[in-house]
């Protein structure tokens, strides 16, 4: 992909905090019109990267372009194209919901008329329009999250950075967030979203970037992951060795899961049923046997299996 075709293009990003190397040469591309998910274990470096992309933290080294602007030479221009929703953010409690958004519309230089229309449009979009005259401090955590998202969108950014946007949201709000993020990507935005809720990311993201110990460990298309996980069956037995022996004797493909159990396959449903019958007949004490649900979770666990 050409650099300027992507909303974010980062190469060789490093950042240390004293002796801790939080990022060790990380590469990332976030295309326009797609949702890219950033996944990785606690401490992998995701927040550090997002802070750097949001121009709130300087990298030690690396080349980063946001909306085509080099962050070293054109941070202001990049910032004007960037919407940033941190995982926790302060709100100005004494302001009303509408005043809060208006404040950011003014800060981004929207003219008062345009700003007023934009505030109403965004409040409608994040389902807070009935709360417009309420002071921000009365909002629930989930409502504050939605206000934070509206704030990130005020200036119609081309590039969106969302750090754990679903935390604190109830199930309905999560579905709404998912639909909203998808619609922003459909309108052309480059969206980068960091979260630990893999099953949810799977429904929202087109691509995944796995970060491990400050570097990119893999990039995956969601559709490819889904196809890979199709036909896998997760089996748990009271004693694992007889199960492993039975699978080896049949040369059936399987992969051990870090969380316990084996992923067997790919197998069709009739093949899986036949195998289960044989295993039980041979005395393997299987207590759970089901299709693998989360494609991303399965790949993520396999990728991080060797972690010490
Ligand atoms: N301001 C700081 N001072 C010192 N060390 C820091 C600082 N910020 C981050 N680190 C360290 O850098 C590493 C990466 O942290 P970071 O917060 O980026 O990880 P993360 O992937 O966002 O983790 P989590 O999923 O837990 O939020 C960690 O080892 C962390 O302790």
Written description of the protein model:
This protein is of the alpha/beta class. It has 3 domains: 3-87 and 154-222, Rossmann fold, CATH 3.40.50.300; 92-138, no CATH class; 232-291, 2-Layer Sandwich (Alpha-Beta Plaits). The chain has 11 helices and 14 strands. The chain has helices spanning 46-53, 75-80, 97-107, 112-125, 141-153, 171-186, 198-204, 222-229, 240-250, 269-281, 295-303; strands at 6-17, 20-31, 35-39, 61-66, 69-70, 82-85, 159-163, 190-194, 207-212, 215-221, 233-237, 254-256, 262-264, 286-291. The strands form 3 sheets. Strands 6-7-8-3-9-10 form a 6-stranded mixed beta sheet, sandwiched between helices. Strand 9 and strand 10 form a beta hairpin. Helix 3 packs across helix 4, helix 4 (112-125) packs across helix 5 and helix 8 (222-229) packs across helix 11 (295-303). The chain starts with 5 loop residues before the first strand and ends in a 5-residue tail after the last helix. The mean pLDDT is 88. Bound molecules: adenosine-5'-triphosphate. Adenosine-5'-triphosphate is lined by residues 17, 20, 22, 40, 42-48. Residues 8-238 form the ABC transporter domain. This is ABC transporter ATP-binding protein. It holds the Pfam family ABC_tran. Belongs to the ABC transporter superfamily.
Task: Produce a short descriptive summary.
One of its GO terms (molecular function) is ATP binding. This protein has 308 residues and is an alpha/beta fold. The protein is 38% helix and 26% strand.
